[in-house]
Design brief:
There is one protein chain. The protein is α+β, with helices and mostly antiparallel strands. It folds into two domains: 68 residues, no CATH class; 252 residues, Metalloenzyme, LuxS/M16 peptidase-like (Cytochrome Bc1 Complex, Chain A, domain 1), CATH 3.30.830.10. It has twelve helices and nine strands. The strands form two sheets. The chain has a seven-stranded mixed beta sheet. Strands 7-8 form a two-stranded antiparallel ribbon. Helix 5 packs antiparallel against helix 6 and helix 6 packs parallel to helix 12. It binds zinc ion.
Length: 378
């Protein structure tokens, strides 16, 4: 499910004037103009959390500009190289014979977070931050969580801040919820911008605010005219009764018995989104969004030492917010009940609402071989 960009914040001179006047001395005219379009709604204008998030974020983005502005004053001196301790160990490294790439895998001994770096020439750096997510109901907790992670984090408490900062680092963000994983993406021109946004983005994923207000706004609420509303609710309302979705859901119900994750609609069914609570979403986040269940895949021209340093620093800021890394953890899917074989062939008809009754669709579903079976799976 793709994320909906819903809110465009309005210009707020009260917040911006001190920031702009400060920046005017530090950055080029082009950057000043860009910053002048970044504001907040009147509700936010006096909020100290918003102000500090904005200023902190701009500091991250503009640090290189500040350094550049001081360049004439900086005298280059030869410094001894400093090797830094990292908590990330190399698990494996190999060249691929099908593309000009080198793949390296690191794992953090502190949190268990996995990082896979694909060294590849090119101007773009692509990041995929994937979590294995498994649920045994149609509540939509995985999908709602995907939306709520963009609503603010521990240090950046408002919706839109991440995307605005990402834009300033020549980046775009997006995310999707599949049945067996949730993935967040960061797409940047060059390593420097990627490196700036990475810790801000990861904080949104691992330590989001997940407020009650955010859930009402983004997931489901009843509006002033008595109608169901909410970004996720509206998204699912648009697809739940289409012929493809109805047929797919019936197929999943026939293939998988209760207690098997593939049986369920991770996007959320409208009936269940209406009663989904913020506490249930927080519980799901705490269970699934742990660094040990997170794999970062980063593709492009990557500075490995810089990357591991950023991730080390990031881990240091979240250790008190996550479950203890040594606490018992059931790995989603890997340690779950296996899917039993089909006992019989079923042929069913699925009705769907449509004005045009001239055509329909046929779906044929069956289990393939085990994907881990090197002989049959070939
Ligand atoms: Zn969505």
């Amino acid at each position: 499910m793709c994320r909906v960009f819903a809110t465009q914040m309005l210009l707020c001179p009260v917040v911006l004037l001190p920031v702009i006047s400060l920046l005017a001395r530090l950055v080029s005219p082009a950057v000043q103009l860009e910053i002048a379009t970044f504001g907040a709604t009147a509700d936010y204008k006096q909020n100290r959390f918003y102000k500090s998030a904005l200023e902190k974020g701009l500091d991250v983005i503009l640090r290189p500009a500040r350094l550049r502005s001081r360049l004439p004053d900086i005298v280059q001196v030869d410094m001894p190289s400093v090797s830094r301790e990292t908590h990330f160990g190399t698990v494996g490294k190999f060249n691929t014979d099908y593309s000009p790439s080198v793949i390296t895998q690191y794992v953090s001994e502190r949190t268990g977070m996995t990082v896979v770096v694909v060294d590849q020439k090119g101007p773009k750096v692509l990041g995929f931050f994937a979590l294995a997510t498994e649920i045994h109901d149609d509540s939509g907790a995985p999908h709602t969580l995907e939306h709520l992670c963009f609503m603010g984090s521990k240090s950046y408490r408002y919706k839109g801040v991440l995307d605005k900062l990402a834009t300033r680092a020549y980046s775009t963000t997006n995310a999707w919820t599949a049945t067996d994983h949730t993935a967040y993406t960061l797409d940047t021109a060059g390593w420097a911008g990627f490196a700036q946004i990475l810790p801000v983005y990861l904080e949104h994923v691992i330590v989001p605010t997940l407020t009650d207000a955010g859930c009402y706004t983004e997931v489901h609420h009843v509006d002033g005219s008595g109608h169901d509303a909410g970004v996720v609710y509206s998204e699912m309302q648009g697809v739940q009764n289409t012929q493809g979705e109805l047929m797919d859901l019936r197929s999943k119900r026939l293939l998988y018995p209760e207690g098997i994750g593939f049986r369920y609609e991770t996007g959320g069914m409208m009936e269940q989104l209406r009663v989904l609570t913020a506490d249930r979403i927080r519980e799901f986040h705490r269970e699934m969004y742990q660094p040990k269940n997170l794999c970062l895949v980063i593709v492009g021209e990557i500075d490995h030492t810089d990357l591991l340093g950023i991730l080390d620093d990031f881990e240091g800021t979240i250790l008190l917010d996550i479950p203890k890394p040594a606490a018992p953890f059931k790995r989603p899917w890997v340690e779950s009940k296996p899917t039993p074989a089909l006992q019989k062939t079923s042929v069913v008809t699925v009705d769907f609402p449509e004005e045009d009754e001239s055509s329909g669709e046929i779906m044929i579903s069956f289990f393939g071989p085990d994907c881990n079976d090197a002989v049959l799976g070939k």
